[in-house]
TrEMBL record:
It holds the Pfam family YceI. The lineage of its organism: Bacteria, Pseudomonadati, Pseudomonadota, Alphaproteobacteria, Caulobacterales. Residues 286-445 form the Lipid/polyisoprenoid-binding YceI-like domain. This is Cytochrome B. One of its GO terms (molecular function) is electron transfer activity. It comes from Caulobacter radicis. It comes from the Bacteria.
């Protein structure tokens, strides 16, 4: 709330209340500011997971909204007269009311500005999209600064934001105390300036309505839960490759990091998924991946599971289970196509701290060595090139060939830290584990 509810009470010397526009702006800003304080507490104290990320995005949206409304309120104030102070009000009270009044404009404009500076100078270039729909730019010039200057501005933003938040607590206490004094002890018309028609005293229903509104906003701040982003679907139902099971497939958190070749668990004859071998497969065959095939990744952010998929990738396959020594595979993945169901998070994945798509737009897996581990079970031994880092990778997969159609499914885990995916604060594995599960299911036709 602003201090205007008690800084300029009514008398015959001026308007008896604020204008309707000023009153609407006052209560909107008051509600937004209180809700914003609660969101800030939750985001700071909560685990660094997907929900906290969503809270921060809403926090930014509300902050910019407060900035816009506060600038509008200030401009309106310059062109419209406010009610004067009550007759006989002590000079010290007038000065205190004016100081609190100015202080509220400082925080209502300063808090969003310092938050905007923080977002504009963050090492992770996460865009600001108001309420998930309206793009909002960074402050011009700040994102392009050299690292040292950028860090200095970021520190300034954090310190300024922290100081102004504490200043907000003081002003809110002074303001609410002053409202109570004018309404209950002085019994003057100050509250009526922002609540048209309100009378002095505890029995005034508008006073209790304002108190109930305050409590409702606080409760909403604590009870609000961001809607879970809709995760991309692994594949359309038409992709029957999902019917191929991997008996030794384990969750991402428990699966071993497959970076070196080694014998895979043997399947029993009952687990065989391979159809009789076509005599035409004595030589490697070129296969074309069909629509409905998918390439996915799974991880956990704090305790929140996140499922993602790459929507653009290609696979050049030359393979025959009867000619493993001459088979080849090259998979090229467009890293900018990574989708997790949250547009802002997906865009941040492209930044320099994660995939760094500006310098390394693609991840490429090549394999020229294949091993048969059981009927219908194989391992592709190759190399993964990600972010310019090349590491050996073994990919176990199941395969079923029926005439001209092949269906395959595979899963492995990657150590993201070995490829530099996660820089700065994200290099630590306390928030995002180092092991990331990668899986695929595809249907292919002979070319």
């Amino acid at each position: 709330m602003t201090a205007e509810t008690h800084s300029k009470p009514a008398s015959a010397a001026g308007p008896v209340r604020y204008t309707t526009v000023a009153i609407i702006l006052h209560w909107l800003i008051a509600a937004a500011l209180i809700f914003q304080v609660i969101l800030g507490w939750r985001a700071d104290d909560g685990p660094k997971g997907a929900e906290t990320f969503a809270l921060f995005q809403l926090h930014k949206s509300i902050g910019i909204t407060i900035l816009v409304l506060s600038v509008a309120r200030l401009l309106w104030k310059f062109t419209h007269k406010s009610p004067p102070a009550p007759a006989g009000q002590p000079t010290w009270e007038k000065l205190a009311a004016s100081a609190v009044h100015v202080g509220f404009y400082v925080i209502m404009i300063g808090l969003p500005l310092t938050g905007w500076i923080i977002a504009s100078t963050s090492r992770i270039n996460i865009p600001t999209v108001l309420y998930g729909a309206i793009p909002w730019p960074h402050i011009p010039g700040l994102p392009e600064l050299a690292a040292g200057a950028k860090d200095a501005w970021n520190d300034f933003g954090h310190i300024g934001h922290s100081v102004l938040v504490k200043f907000t607590y003081v002003l809110l206490a002074l303001h609410l105390g002053a409202v109570a004094k004018h309404q209950i002890l002085d019994r003057d018309e100050v509250f009526g300036h922002m609540a048209a028609g309100a009378k002095p005293g505890l029995k005034e229903p508008r006073l209790w309505l304002a108190a109930a509104g305050f409590a409702a906003v606080v409760a909403a701040g604590y009870l609000y839960t961001p809607a879970k982003a809709k995760a991309p679907q692994p594949a359309p139902a038409e992709s029957s490759a999902d019917d191929l099971a991997l008996p030794d497939e384990t969750p991402a958190a428990a699966a071993p990091v497959a970076t070196t070749a080694g014998p895979a668990p043997q399947a029993t004859p009952a687990e065989s998924t391979e159809a009789p071998v076509d005599s035409a497969l004595k030589d490697p065959v070129a296969w074309a991946v069909q629509k409905g095939s998918h390439l996915d990744f799974d991880l956990a952010w704090a305790d929140t599971p996140i499922h993602g998929t790459f929507s653009r990738w290609t696979a050049d396959i030359l393979f025959s289970p009867e000619a493993l020594d001459r088979s080849k595979l090259t998979v090229s993945v467009d890293l900018a196509s990574a989708g997790t169901g949250d547009g802002q998070r997906d865009e941040s994945l492209q930044g320099p701290d994660f995939f760094n798509t500006a310098s390394s737009p693609k991840a490429i897996f090549t394999a020229t060595k294949f091993r048969k581990t059981a009927e219908g079970r194989f391992v592709a031994d190759g190399t993964l090139d990600l972010r310019g880092v090349k590491k050996p990778l073994s990919l176990p997969f199941s395969l079923k060939i029926d005439g001209d159609t092949a269906k395959a499914r595979g899963v492995t885990t990657l150590d993201r830290t070995a490829f530099g995916v996660g820089q700065g604060e994200w290099a630590s594995t306390d928030q995002i584990p180092g092991k990331i599960k990668v899986s695929f299911a595809l249907t292919a036709k002979k070319k």
